[in-house]
Design a protein that fits this description.
The chain has about 350 residues and is mainly beta. It has one domain (about 10-340): Porin (Beta Barrel), CATH 2.40.160. Helix content is about 5%, strand content about 65%. It contains 1 helix and 17 strands. The chain has a 14-stranded antiparallel β-barrel with strand order 1-2-3-5-6-7-8-9-10-11-12-15-16-17. The chain starts with 9 loop residues before the first helix and ends with a strand.
Length: about 350
């Protein structure tokens, strides 16, 4: 699914609550930086033949020790409202529960003029797709009433993924490089609807600080290979580049802005693992482009509000739902909001 910030599963909810209860104890050592982020986002699908809207809620907790190591735990719940596909088929409605666990460790090798960081993420996603079919049985005899029979079928799909990354940033925090690798496994409930699939992804990134550190430019590549293309009309690979610009303001900025950013994706992504947002595009859709604007405000010293508005274009492959319509070109307009509380 998409979008911002993260999506993960039920086991991570327990781990997340455990981590949150542990945070005050960590803070006692005055060596930890702690952050709690509740978030929500709403998206409206445009020109989609199967989907109407999506609403998502999540919460994430992070702890960082002296900028040398740290972890993040999160949980997100998303609900997609379907629309009528044909005269007798409604949906699918989709309920997604997603859990996220991430950890990193940094080292400072003498042979390098900067910091080397190793990161490992785990994702667990459960999607429930509910397809509703309606059958009308004509009433018998004169004046007989028609009978309407509604039948719902639920498919439960499970997705797990791992992401490993090695990153370098120089001591002046001007140059940044990383290389990431993700492996995702899709276990589908109904073999006649979708065939299980494995996905590999290589994700190199370069970043550059300019304007005395007030601006950040970044480019990230996505090179994705599918085990097979049975669920994507024969497509087994996709490539894209993600471009990002962020500008930070001083204390007297217009409208009190703390930062502003522009994000775009050029190319195609399928089943992408997004390490920046910490999410999986878990549906078998091809993202054709993405544009978004980020704005954040520092409300007080330890409280920051962030909003993102965006527009994405997709191709949805659903030949198994309708043999007469092999694919669906659609877009989504969305708004995302979070509140970052740190101490």
């Amino acid at each position: 699914m998409s979008r911002k910030f993260k999506k993960r599963s039920h086991p991570a909810l327990f781990l997340g609550l455990t981590g949150i209860s542990f945070l005050p104890y960590c803070h006692a050592a005055d060596s930890w930086t702690l952050e709690l982020i509740p978030q929500t986002w709403y998206g409206s699908y445009q020109s989609s033949l199967t989907r109407d809207s999506v609403l998502s809620f999540g919460i994430y907790a992070s702890a960082d020790y002296l900028d040398k190591s740290g972890f993040t735990i999160g949980y997100n719940r998303s609900d997609v409202t379907g629309k009528t596909v044909a005269t007798d088929i409604i949906g699918p409605d989709i309920e997604e529960s997603a859990g996220y666990l991430s950890g990193y460790y940094s080292t400072f090798p003498d042979a390098l003029p900067g910091k080397l960081t190793f990161r490992l993420d785990g994702y667990s996603v459960m999607d429930k797709s509910i397809i509703t079919e309606t059958t009308v049985i004509p009433g018998g005899g004169m004046g007989g009433n028609d009978r309407v029979i509604t039948d719902s079928t639920t498919y439960t799909d499970n997705i797990v993924a791992g992401y490993a990354e090695m990153a370098f940033i120089d001591y002046s925090e001007k140059y940044y490089f990383d290389i990431g690798y993700a492996f995702s496994s899709y276990d589908y409930d109904a073999a006649d609807v979708s065939r299980d699939n494995d996905v590999q992804q290589f994700t190199p990134t370069v970043g550059l600080a300019i304007n005395e550190g007030y601006d950040w430019l970044q480019a990230r590549g996505y090179f994705i290979q599918l085990q097979h293309g049975d669920n994507t009309n024969g497509k087994t690979s996709s490539n894209a580049i993600e471009l990002q610009w962020i500008h930070w303001y001083g204390p007297l900025a217009f409208l009190g802005l703390h930062s502003i950013g522009i994000h775009t994706v050029i190319g195609e992504r399928m089943y992408a693992v997004d390490p920046e947002a910490g999410e999986i595009n878990s549906l078998a859709d091809r993202q054709n482009s993405s544009y978004s604007l980020l704005m954040s405000w520092k409300l007080v010293e330890n409280l920051e509000f962030t909003t993102v508005v965006g527009y994405d274009q997709y191709t949805e492959f659903f030949a198994n739902l309708s043999n007469t319509i092999p694919k669906d070109e659609y877009s989504i307009v969305y708004g995302y909001f979070n509140l970052a509380i740190s101490w």
